[in-house]
Design goal:
429 residues, Dihydrodipicolinate Reductase, domain 2, Alpha-Beta Plaits, alpha/beta, homodimer, 14 helices, 25% strand, 6-stranded parallel sheet, Rossmann fold
């Protein structure tokens, strides 16, 4: 059978990994795809750079969008990255030309997925993006196809390996955030400008995609509540341990009668919960369906191999004719459930206050919580240092985010409270 | 669009669960399938029994194979169970009639999958069986499609919830096997005749299927080495704890240059490995690919909801036209790699001997191991009881199964060894 001819745009780590994997496993991929798959064209700006894969004999384009116009290209792989610019122009051009697209680009999907899905549906071509969420873990396939019979109530996960690595190192080695970040940058686990990862933006892109699939409802990125891990301190990690929790940066999307909520922030999860034990650079995705119960998937969320594994799985699906609407259902069947704002969130909380160690402080703190109708579950003050700053930790029963935020404003205003209170939400998953 | 008309054969827990789920989530299933899916015919022997779902208005057949001949049925669901008889006759009749089949029947696939796959391919119709392995966990989809770009080196898992429940209860409550089994039978977690589960047969059926998918090679059931958990004692569970292991019944299939091996037996796995922490009735599947690394999926492996979730996911795939060859590649591309016999297995071992507590016994034991060229890693004798029976535990470095079996025969023949030695293989996963 005639090979499926693939054009790869972007020859960074992921793009080069895709070219290499398609060659290394060519025979088994052909068997599973039902036909050979061959890269025939590539696009990248600098032709001379060594990418670890030979590109001789391939048609070369400096302008990525030209790949879409190449009559010899059946399917376009986009591994340029970035939510706009060239990546977006290429994907639009390829879909408009009726060519299926496989992309690893979470930012593009999270920010422009609605329009791209409409274009793909209108042209009747596949737009696949397994690599955009949780690297090599087939999380998108599991949620969108494997659990398709379920009303999914919640989808959540550890979606950023850099954050999970930093939090794991902080815990196991008792270090502060800044120290571990610096080390991670030296090891190449964190970027020189780490804000995209550590401020939760990358995890939020992935959560927006997962939520859209789980609930058949495109999620606008502006609907998400996003916090990163900069404010998590070594004290919080130690306190979590003492309270039987682990701190994880989670993305959590929930569907109720009232609507859809999606949020990314540090969480305290019980040590015994399966996701608490997913450490280091590993990612995990948990989905809860009405029929299936809870399913968890874990594996490597980044790197050339895992990401290429997901991109090539999408190519094989398309070669076999296995196609799914972008958000799991056609445009006419998508849900228009409202987005719930973060103020409406209900949950339990961990609060850490740095207070002056003197009589009466705890009474002031508990009075503020009482006035906000927030019920305390536990209070912990470890160590004594009369007249100096000590941490006081409070955990609460379930209450509303809005009430908690009002209480925090009042707590921060107390004379005896020396720093802005630290808040971490408690989640059972 | 015209509904996809489904005939369900067998109205036990699973069949009734499928009918119920297709009704309960009809709207979202139609959105995801691209068309409504309606059960129009059922087959079961006893029409009067209450199954918790109304079956009024459905065409009723006492003879299941008649479903295949019903011109109004587009797709046949087989939930009768059993490796032969009615279930097999129905599946063959449906495929022969050019109708896609969805089944939850692991025994049927494990024992007759080769012939059924050939029939499905010849007729060009789908034969789907996600529910046959690990219940609601989309393990088959993950291995066959999600990791399709990978040379899979190993696939393994906790594939029987009854065994995992029994082993978990033995550990957490310090009970003997027989006590927990009895309790599990009362709770409905184990059958009145439990041998199918506790002797490893059910797990072996599932492993045969997973191995065939992972390696694109049908695995004859006779090629598997199968041991159950009857011989695991409370002493072994306690010793495992002391050595930093958990005992799990695992199915493990490996592909090397030399061939394919597939085995089901109790294993010692390090406490820190993710699969060690999958407890109770939960199942887990681990796959290791050359590009993706290790991926693990966990969830409920049985029950009406999870199993129906998997069956209906298959129906949705077929409605969407997403079809995959039974063993992941067409007959012409399947592998004919040889099966490796268990004697060729290499690994580390845990051995427990019940010996008379007297001087010289350890010297006899270690001499046998030395003569078999088996290298010891540790030796543990807890407690003293001069002249009485005490357990002595030995762990070894990697050696060949054949050498270990010869050593065990010699150890069993020693005067000071009072019971047949207990052997549990140590696995890192």
């Amino acid at each position: 059978m005639k090979p499926l001819s693939v054009g790869v745009a972007g020859l960074g780590t992921v793009g080069a990994g895709v070219v290499k994997l398609l060659r290394d496993n060519a025979e088994l991929i052909a068997a599973r795809a039902g036909r050979p798959i061959a890269v025939t064209a590539v696009s990248s700006r600098d032709r001379r750079r060594d990418r670890g894969v030979p590109v001789d004999g391939l048609r070369w384009y400096e302008d990525a969008t030209a790949l879409a116009a190449d009559a010899g290209v059946d399917l376009v792989v986009e591994t340029i990255g970035g939510s706009g610019g060239t990546a977006r122009a290429l994907v639009e051009a390829a879909l408009a030309a009726g060519k299926p697209v496989v992309t690893a680009n979470k930012a593009l999907l999270a920010l422009h997925g609605r329009a791209l899905a409409a274009l793909a549906e209108q042209r009747g071509v596949a737009l696949a993006f397994e690599a955009a969420v949780a690297g090599g873990i087939p999380a998108i396939k599991a949620v969108r196809e494997g659990l398709a019979a379920n009303q999914i109530r919640r989808v959540a996960g550890i979606l950023n390996g850099t954050c999970n690595y930093i939090l794991t190192e902080m815990r196991t080695r008792g270090l502060q955030f800044a120290e571990v970040l610096h080390e991670a940058q030296k090891l190449g686990y964190a970027e020189a400008d780490p804000s995209f990862d550590i401020d939760g933006v990358d995890a939020a892109h992935k959560l927006a995609i997962l939520a859209a699939l789980a609930f058949n409802r495109p999620v606008d990125f502006s609907e998400l509540h996003v916090e990163g891990i900069r404010a998590v301190s070594a004290v919080d990690i130690a306190m979590a341990d003492a309270l039987g929790f682990r701190i994880k940066l989670l993305g959590i999307a929930t569907r109720t009668e009232a609507g859809v909520s999606a949020r990314v922030h540090p969480c305290m999860v019980p040590v015994a919960s399966p996701i608490a034990r997913v450490d280091g650079v590993f990612n995990a995705v948990v989905a809860e369906g009405d029929a299936v119960g809870r399913v968890m998937l874990e594996g490597r969320g980044a790197g050339a191999g895992p990401t290429a594994s997901a991109v090539v799985a999408d190519i094989i699906d398309i070669a076999r004719g296995r196609v799914t609407p972008v958000w799991g259902a056609g445009a006419a069947s998508l849900s228009a459930a409202p987005a719930l704002p973060m103020e409406r969130h209900r949950g339990a909380y961990y609060l850490r206050l740095m207070v002056v160690d003197r009589p009466g402080v705890i009474a002031d703190v508990t009075a503020v919580l009482r006035d906000a109708a927030i019920s305390m579950e536990s209070m912990l003050q470890r160590g004594r240092a009369p007249g100096e700053a000590v941490p006081v930790v409070v955990t609460t029963h379930e209450c509303e985010e809005a009430a908690m935020q009002r209480a925090i404003t009042r707590l921060a205003a107390l004379d005896s409270v020396l720093e802005p209170p630290a808040l971490i939400r408690i989640e059972t998953l």
